[in-house]
Write a structure and sequence with these properties.
The complex is a heterodimer. Chain A is 30% helix and 23% strand. Chain A contains 10 helices and 12 strands. By secondary structure, chain B is of the alpha/beta class. Classes of the chains: A alpha/beta, B alpha/beta.
Chain lengths: 329, 330
């Protein structure tokens, strides 16, 4: 099916998602927010790609474009070789059974009036499993898979704890046996002791079912733990992408370095030895990003030419890519 | 030298329709001068309620501080009325607090300048002119660019990180002895979190203030706190110097917490996370035995038979509330 690289479940090329800024009664278009601006990456089968960045960097928008909850402004999204970026709604409805989504808020993403059985079974109905017995069996199977007791099927969401709700969300995402799952901050709303349960569950499911994950989160330690490779986003662009261990040991982009040093490690001995790089200022508004390299006003390596053109991602070996003029490699 | 603040056997209960919630059930802790103390625990463990009780900011009903002493500068604060003059003169002036959500703790219809000068005028009886000057100085200190020009701005015109800086300036404005920061960085991004925590650390050194950081983030306390209290289900289960807690944790809950958080630099191949089984307890009508018992992988008969053990000194400043190595039967 795929002509380019048969190992890739998903391939994204030059993805752009611009949101219009409108003003006045006639909703005149006065500008645009470049939420995702020329992003390219691929995820291999059975791989987890982590996508990190601070709020407003475009990581969620990227995930939503892949799910085709948004129609991208430009670029290609190839799922097993098929470009879905321009696919119409009718075809998409069927195609989406290949992808699952897990969302951040286990409270807001489940309908409070539906029973757990209905919530998890809905994708089955949408995708044409009409036999009630079959549906029931599959829902039961899914409950077991995510570690929920089948006797809980008749309960409604508020009768579940936060962690159990997230398990429900995972069961729903798995209902149609998708190849790819977009996990958008799946553990950030949970308490630490529950976070580990969900992370482990996601890891086990991946091994058991051969899943491919795009794992979107702002918590670098969680992302690094679960991902094979990590992509760092800043103001709509990927600025560095590398194998998870490599990114930690040898970060190249000044923003990645600052991001890593900002994450405290739960070990006072390690903490005392670390150098802390504290960034100046705040993330600029994505409606008016700085010219050139978006990071240049906060960068300690920046020179005037950084504001003139924006650096492309380039490979420094071993698939470690970085978008910075100042990095020697 | 006696501690600046000593809390003894504090008990704060909430009377709800579904039963009595012992949110804080016999908590004792000390804050020394110029010390940075961390209080960690998951949601609902009573860490915020303990701090709010110190300042008597518990709304009653349903809340009630049923027992305990809060000794600050030689006097028991709990003997004073929550809305009385003494408490008002301490709250915000001698002991200041920063809350999690800077948008809800700032008044949206008053300018930043108005809100910051109020404390100075009330507590330090400054005149409006000198209060304004002092506020400009404070805002500059916490890193607000164009401090003078921003005095007449409203909170919504500031970003989340900037609002939290304003809160820090406000909390420090009256030179408090203790600054309590309740989840100060939960709502902000990680680089902003680093900026704010560094700022707080600089400020408490500069103002010779003690700082209490209440958080669920173990990394934050490992980086900043000298001494740590670990809370579970309304009680302190372990306390000690940062090194005691992180390098030699003794309570099964502390051990479990450290095993279940991913650490930067470790991938899943190197260390699998070990989750704590089960769920945090429901605080309504708790049994008298150790609340961690249902989740504990080291539970023994004694844990089921005896009431929750009290904190015991292990060595130095390291205290643990657990029958760890005691006799198998009582």
């Amino acid at each position: 099916m795929n002509q380019e690289n048969p190992g890739n479940v998903i391939e994204i090329k030059n993805l752009r998602m611009y949101f219009p800024i409108t003003r006045g009664l006639l909703r005149r278009r006065v500008g645009e927010i470049k939420a995702v601006d020329d992003v390219s990456f691929a995820i291999k089968k059975n791989e987890t790609l982590g996508l990190v960045g601070e709020s407003g960097c475009g990581k969620t928008t990227t995930g939503r474009c892949i799910l085709r909850l948004y129609k991208p402004t430009a670029g290609e999204i190839r799922f097993n070789g098929t470009d879905i970026s321009g696919m119409n709604e009718n075809r998409l409805r069927l195609f989406r059974s290949n992808m699952g989504a897990i969302f951040q808020d286990p409270y807001g993403s489940l309908n409070p009036r539906q029973t757990a059985r209905t919530i998890v079974g809905m994708p089955l109905i949408v995708h044409g499993m009409n036999d009630k017995r079959q549906q029931n069996n599959r829902v039961e199977e899914l409950f077991k898979l995510v570690g929920l007791d089948a006797s809980m099927m008749t309960r409604v969401p508020h009768e579940f704890s936060g962690g159990q709700r997230q398990r429900l969300g995972i069961a729903r995402a798995l209902a149609c046996q998708p190849a790819l799952i977009i996990c958008d901050e799946p553990v950030s709303a949970l308490d630490v002791s529950i976070q580990a349960q969900i992370i482990n569950l996601l890891e086990e499911l991946q091994e058991k079912l051969g899943l491919t994950y795009l794992f979107i989160a702002h918590d670098l330690s969680v992302v690094q733990h679960i991902s094979n490779r990590v992509a760092v986003m800043y103001l709509g662009r990927i600025i560095e992408i590398a194998n998870s261990r490599e990114l930690y040991e040898n970060p190249l982009h000044p923003y990645t370095k600052a991001l890593l040093s900002a994450v405290p490690v739960p070990n006072p001995v390690i903490e005392r030895k670390r150098t802390r790089t504290v960034l100046k200022g705040e993330v600029p508004s994505p409606a008016a990003p700085p010219p050139g390299c978006h990071f240049n006003p906060r960068c300690n390596l920046a020179t005037p030419d950084c504001a003139e053109s924006s650096p492309e991602l380039r490979d420094t070996g071993n698939g470690h890519q970085v978008a910075c003029f100042k990095v020697q490699a | 030298m006696p501690p600046l603040l000593s809390v003894y056997n504090l008990k704060t209960y909430f009377h709800t329709y579904r039963g009595l919630v012992k949110a804080v059930d016999g908590v004792s802790f000390d804050i020394n001068e110029k010390e940075i103390v961390g209080v960690v625990g998951e949601s609902g463990c009573g860490k915020s309620v303990s701090m709010l009780s110190v300042l008597q900011l518990i709304s009653s009903p349903p809340g009630e501080i049923v027992d305990g002493k809060v000794i600050f500068e030689g006097q028991d604060l709990l003997q004073y009325q929550p809305k009385g003059e003494t408490m008002s003169s301490i709250r915000g002036a001698r002991i200041a607090m920063i809350f999690q959500e800077p948008m809800t703790s700032l008044n949206p219809v008053l300018t930043i300048g108005r809100q910051l000068t109020e404390g100075l005028e009330v507590h330090l009886s400054m005149n409006p002119q000198s209060a304004r000057e002092r506020v400009v100085e404070l805002l500059r200190l916490v890193g607000i660019p164009d401090a003078k020009g921003r005095l007449d701005a409203y909170p919504h015109q500031f970003s989340g990180g900037m609002r939290q800086r304003v809160m820090i300036a406000m909390a420090l404005s009256c030179n408090p002895r203790i600054l309590i920061a309740d989840e100060p960085t939960t709502a902000v991004d990680v680089t902003t979190q680093a900026q704010l925590l560094e700022l707080m650390q600089d400020m408490v050194v500069r103002f010779k203030t003690s700082l209490v950081i209440v958080t669920h983030n173990l990394g934050v306390v490992a980086r900043y706190a000298e001494r740590i209290y670990v809370m579970y289900s309304g009680r302190i289960v372990e306390s000690g110097l940062a090194d005691d807690i992180f390098l030699n944790p003794l309570h099964p809950y502390t051990i479990g917490l450290l095993k279940c958080v991913p650490q930067l630099g470790e991938t899943r191949k190197e260390r699998k996370l070990v989750p704590i089984q089960g769920l945090p307890p429901n605080l309504i009508n708790m049994p008298s035995s150790c609340a961690f018992l249902p989740r504990c992988d080291r539970a023994r008969d004694i844990c089921r038979q005896k009431p929750w053990p009290s904190l015991e000194l292990i060595e130095g400043q390291h205290y643990v509330a657990c029958f760890r190595d005691g006799p198998e039967t009582p």
